[in-house]
Hints:
The chain is of the alpha+beta class. The protein folds into four domains: 2-163, Trypsin-like serine proteases (Thrombin, subunit H), CATH 2.40.10.10; 166-307, Thrombin, subunit H (Beta Barrel), CATH 2.40.10; 309-429, Ubiquitin-like (UB roll), CATH 3.10.20; 434-594, no CATH class. The strands form five sheets. Strands 1-2-3-6-5-4 form a six-stranded antiparallel barrel. Residues 1-5 and 131-159 have low confidence and may be disordered.
Amino acid sequence: MRIILCFALALTALAQAPKTGKVDLFPLEQVKPGMKATAWTVFEGQEVEPVPVEVIGVWKNAWGPKQDIILAKMFGKALRTGVAGGMSGSPVYLDGKLLGAVSLRISVFSPDAICGITPAGLMLEINEFDSSKPADAKTPRTVAARARLSVPENVLSGALVQPIETPLTFSGFHENVLREFGGALRQMGLQPVLGGAAGANYETKPAGDWKNSLQPGQPIVGVLVSGDMNISGLGTVTYNDGQKVLGFGHPFFNMGPVDMPMAKGEILTVLSSSFQPNKVGNATEIVGALRQDRHSGIQGLLGEQAATIPVTVKVNNLAATGGAARTKDYRFNVFVNQKWTPFLMSMTLFNAISGANEFSDETTYKLNGRVELDGLPPIELGGMATVNDAPLPPAIALATWWGDKFNRLYGNTLENPKLKSVNVTVDLIPERRAATVESAWMEKTDLEPGEEVNLKVFVQPYRGERITRSLKIRIPQNLTRGEHRVVLTDADTLNRAPLVAGSANRFIELQQTVNLINAERLNTQLYAVITSVKPTVYLDDKSLTSIPGSVMNVLQSGRAATKPMLTLLESYTEAAAIPFDYAVSGNYSLRFTVR
Length: 595
């Protein structure tokens, strides 16, 4: 056995690495146990190396109905590293023909490097979703006509078959980001790891040498974030016909059609581990765009450019006496996707603010942001997050709030938003800036319509002297006689009803979503509103006050169940907004009478 293995190693060393261009496929029905093949992958740098492979057999229906997997044992360097994350897509050749791609690992503690190989014909099915198969590719017979080969029952008794984890490398990220967001990533079948980068890549256009990139066996990288922060998924190229590239042999996110930057990569090392072996590498130049993310692999097009969102984040670390003690600027591009973009926006903002040396438990974060959209008015965002009674730390709360704005945009069921740019500035204030409404005072309580009246409001900061603010409000001319209230209230209270009404409408227009976000009150302001006992209707992005009952009945009868409206029994008129340099919460009510 050892002589045979040494002979196979010698033959493998003489084999020529696969190149871009025409390739024949080895028919699955001709695969027999004991056949010797060669896998090609990178263990260091970008040089493709051969790995001896011995076929165990074909495991029928292992990858799904009428989707077989070839089981094989890997030798050479793979005996040391195991079937490592990042090897996904490593092409396997038998008699000079493409057999398939390394895509599965069998068990995690086995001393043998046993892998599952996705047949090349199954991967080539991906090309049928957007055009014909790659030029000059000779495909095997249909899946239904394949001859069935069985795997010896005693070989893999109780084996656990799973796709090789895709190492999702975070470069320029702090460890606490993976701690906070890693659970969600692992639920997607991804293995988040901290890593380095070959350099900040701000360019999203394909590099000049894209035509000669991504040879079979070399690393292929799907890029989610690039620039001063990088998030990328690493695998291996299976096939390249000069334009179309196939890789992984299993899904990345299984999203179907995608538009994601595709890059070259370099491998630093392969981390050997009986539990979780992984390639450790960097993304380098972008050379194209991934277009398909399917069950049996990914497909990309060389030379094409994927749409991304340019983001700038400025973090001002303020001194205790005021003024910026230090400023940090970050620039990066974000992958555009309904599910991923909001998640990536949250992670990158959290990373920018939580990794500063000025970070502490008592830090307050003041945010001002602007989102530019194609064909719509920009979204202006502002707010402050600080320590309060909520269970979330303020940095996570701010990142979640920020990501929710993009969730609302991309969750629109009528129109897909096109974001041109995102710019955000965050001030880190080295103290807790929280304040609560304590009480209020009104100059007099017997008033005429249209009359002005003086008010005072008293706000208590956290461990500070009470703040007093004076203001004047005007009683509306159309306010009816009788008893009314002036309510000093926070932004969360006023934002609640419009948010619920907008969220309840499954078919709200994108323009209306933008209007609702722009209409949100700031939590750094206290609002004086005059209430009266008349119903208010919240309809899409509009609030209709003092509606007669007959009109309300007409509105209700014309609304579909998918477009509900929210009705409150009170109407209010906003009389004043009082700015504070604190996150203000609480409510206080004053009663008055109109003669």
